[in-house]
Amino acid sequence: MVRLSTSNEEGDVDPNSITHEEEEEEEEEEKKTPFVRSIHRVVDSFPTRMLVVFDKSVGKAPDALHSPHTKSVGCLCDHFASVHPGAITVNLGPSGRLAYSLDRQNPLHPRTLRDRGPYPGDQVVRDLNGKFAFILYDNSAKMTFVAADADRSVPFYWGSDSEGNLVFSDDVEAVKKGCGKSFAPFPKGCFFTTCGGLRSYEHPFNELKPVPRVDSSGQVCGANFKVDSKSKKESSGMPRVGSAANWSSHY
Fold first, then answer.
1. Residue 221's pLDDT band (boundaries 50, 70, 90)?
2. Cα distance between residue 2 and residue 171, in whole Å
3. Distance between CA atoms of 133 and 32, rounded to whole angstroms?
4. Domain 3-13+36-250: which topology?
5. What Å distances lie between residue 23 and 17, 103, 203, CA to CA?
6. Which of these, 24, 76, 88, 150, is most buried using a 10 Å CB contact count?
7. 79: part of which helix (H) or strand (E)?
8. First to last CA, the chain
9. How many CB atoms neighbour CB 168 within 10 A?
10. What pLDDT is attached to residue 106?
């Protein structure tokens, strides 16, 4: 759901054209700024329409997101495909389903991300520049990682359907169909993981508190989540870089 660009302001970078001296300079820069130096910017995303429905085993929706008397359509991905001709649906087995359309998709756009981890999830997202919202899913581990930028620049929504499944999409109408009133814009400056739930990457040691959303008729429609400046999470400390333990799994 996000396009990662390896181009700089002067044009695209050919990895084969990088000299030995440039590689040494890049290594020095990596020591100063962790994460992925090959990503110079994140381009405004959502060239497609996309919908993901995760089973509760992959992502449990916060209780505050669910509104009582929620009405939703069944087989949300099928509904999505019906309103987006040519959409592709992928069955993730018991973990859920996803669907996406290929409208305005550029098949030549680079999609390579160089692994320089492991780093804490909040640091990874905080180091990204640009407008973004994305969903990562590891089918082997049955885990997901979802995030959006701090300005909510990209339309991105989440919700809980009548069966308690977690729904993500850039199509607000699809989320409304699937979740009824149990939906909200995805919180800006936050990320969601299977293990850790919803967290703020700008304030990773603060708790998030739900604030009910109320529509024009006075009915509760899910919740927004705000950083609670008075509540701090306990920290077990940050493992040193180079540790044999892969502490990215904690996110």
1. confident
2. 14
3. 26
4. Glutamine Phosphoribosylpyrophosphate, subunit 1, domain 1 (3.60.20)
5. 11, 37, 33
6. 76
7. helix 76-83
8. 20
9. 25
10. 54
